[in-house]
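Protein modeling request. Please complete all fields; requests missing the sequence field cannot be processed.
Requester role: graduate student
Desired output: 3D structure, token encoding
Chains: 1
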Amino acid sequence: MDPALAALGEFGLIGLIRDRIRQRSPGTRLGIGDDAAVLEAAPGHEVLVTTDMLLEDVHFKRAWGCSRELGRKTLAVNVSDIAAMGGRPHHAFLALGIPCQGITLAELEAVLAGLEDEAAATEVTLAGGDTCASRSGLVLCVTLLGSVPAGQAVRRSGARAGDGVWVTGGLGGSAAGFVALERGLRPGMAWPADLPRPSWLGSAEEADLRSAMAAHLTPTPRLAAGQALRRCATAMIDLSDGLASDLRHICAESGVGALVRAGGIPLHPGALVAARWTGRDGLDLALRGGEDYELLFTSRADPRPVLAGAAPGLPVVRIGEVVDGPPAPTLETGDGRTEALAGGFDHLRHAT
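Delivered output (352 residues):
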């Protein structure tokens, strides 16, 4: 173990974390330092609770050398869940599994600094958690509390036939960024000398790949958009496992079908570059790549006027509609054929 980390010890690390965090959230009666935090609920609001883990060699690789970005993402993926319910995040709790070998105190400090960067950007307070040794890789698990006005949480179960199916941003960027990282590209570093560069891949294409890496490493939760969409969204989910999988969740919970038009799906520019580079279909990256953390929602009304004020500049596109029928999504291809929209990331199936 890193001598500096061993000298600090578990309780020294907790003290370091306590010294670094800042109080930002209303309702914090007592934070880090006791057996439990003491929080005060806002009058007229309901509490939202979500938990997400990031596991080494499943969600990230420490060899990428992106510790600060990892800290940001650890919190951001949870904030995205709160955004998808139309809520506002308040308090986070971090469970940290630290490998016995191979990690340094400097790496952990960078992770914590990144988490605090994201906390500052989203007005979240780290209010507690746990630390322990891990016999495998680094484990980061955040439980995040948020709130939403009573009765206004946007669920997955409200879609009805005739609603439009909408999505924010461009899709497939995170999957493309993962491809670039796996092949050796790194943020802020030149193209690796030992990585063959296709003749067609110029500066514009490289910029698109680097934008995709940023989308993978530091996703942007659509908080303002999610809160504004309480005014018109009938169902909503964040795109963590891919459009195919996440739209299937809305269909299942709402008891409806959905028709999506392939030609209407907005692709991240990096997805097109990665597709050409790898021979994979760019649309497949958008449908099944996952970790875009955009908002997928249904709405009877046009949401663009709502989002223009709350999230100016954020693209939002109608990609299909909710229909009566079996509770599953269908894809209309470019030649007018329809097929079941299946696939997406499933941890247990991918683990075998």
